Amino acid sequence: MAEQQCKYTKVIDYIRQGIDSRVWQHDEKLPSIRQLSQQLGVSKNTIIRAYHTLEARGIITANARSGYRVVYQKMKPSNNSIPRSISLLSMCKDVLAKPSPEERLNLGTAHPNISTPAINSLYAEIGRHSRRQTHSHSHYQLPPGNQELTYQFKNLSNDLGLTVSQHEITVTHGAQQGISLALRAVTKPGDTVIVESPCYFGNLLLMESLGLKVIEISSSPVTGIDVSAVSNAINKWDVSAVLVTPNFMNPTGAQMPLNARIELLRVSNNIPIIEDDVFGALGFNQPIPPIHALDSNKRVIYINSLSKVLDSRLRIGWVIAGRYQEVIERQLFCDTMGSTNLMQSAVADFLKSGRYRSHVKKMNRYYQNAMQTFYEELTQRLDRSHYLYKNYQLTVPTGSFLLWLELPKVFDGLAAYQQAREQRISILPGHLFATSGQYKHCLRFSCSNYMLNSHWKSGLDQLVELIDAQLRD
């Protein structure tokens, strides 16, 4: 079974890379099932399964009696591959900080589903530890963190393909603090950092606050950052760091193939790489080794947290900093003078209980089903529109719970966001994920709480009508 899964994913990677490199272009016919079976030396059933999966992700389409054709085409290289200052704070505050009425359709926030027994157990554990605090001495939890928690994070890291010791792990106040510590360890104000484009707005805001410039490298919504464009930027500009999310990047859900990760290590020379892996545990297929696991020089700073797997409110993460561990722990100590042992010890006991792993397996099945169902429901509605039929791109990632919708260039995502709010529908506009508004025609959806019922169906009807009406005007 494992061998069949490996063959199947290799076929998918082969086809995706062929499309990204324009071996097969938009609307071009792909090899027949028989041809590809003979070419790759795998069974016809393996090819059929791969084609069906790629069709479900919106990358190819089946035509009656004429095989499969390419729908998805990798984005053209961005013209934004120059160092740019960032000014996103006012827009993010406007979009995210407004008090909202009771939402009837929450597709905007990238928070996990917390309506599970494991989350109830987690907060029961926190309650037990809280009651014990009155019987212990008051003290700070100094870096690198609670000893049992660093041990449990070592185990979680091993599950994700990293071979590390407990002593290499530093506990942080979530992934965002980890990224901040990493950037401060390897850059200074005015330096330039390479990022994916589109890029998570929290990282853009962080770099804005640190006085950094960014080079935005266009990324495929399927295979992630364009490594050849990274190489060109490094050869042209003085780059201090590369910040990437190889697994299911926010907002597109892209996952870098193994060969792209190896190539990124090669072309980046000795430049520090900051690897954000907050969605790494939420993969539906065989995991790909993190970039940190492929690095023999200890220049990759690996960052993870429990926010996307358990609950965003926990604000507990970890960093594996390699050669930068000492400076990061010094910064962490100066920033906080210690953390709360209450949360760290409670989370450590929860992880020790074994409930985390069963929770992850359960949620991965749930998210995979939710995203596939949402994709089918949304595409059915989009395809009914004369203005939208075959004029959009929606891909289903192989992990996480986020989907990225690219609409015609004339579409205004920020206007749609504001109109949707009036209907009590929460979405996130693409404006937030770049420095110059180049994704204003895009929307990001979170399927973490999606349910197939009349309530959600009527909400999707309204959302698509809103999109369609804007394009009709």
TrEMBL record:
Molecular functions per Gene Ontology: DNA binding; DNA-binding transcription factor activity; pyridoxal phosphate binding
Keyword presence, 4Fe-4S: no
Classification via Pfam families: Aminotran_1_2, GntR
CDD domains, A to Z: AAT_like, WHTH_GntR
SMART domains hit by this protein: HTH_GNTR
Keywords of this entry: DNA-binding, Pyridoxal phosphate, Transcription, Transcription regulation
Positions of the HTH gntR-type domain: 5-73
UniProt entry tagged with the keyword Transcription regulation: yes
Family as reported in the entry's similarity comment: In the C-terminal section; belongs to the class-I pyridoxal-phosphate-dependent aminotransferase family.
Name listed for the protein in its UniProt record: Transcriptional regulator
Organism: Vibrio caribbeanicus ATCC BAA-2122
Lineage per the UniProt record: Bacteria, Pseudomonadati, Pseudomonadota, Gammaproteobacteria, Vibrionales
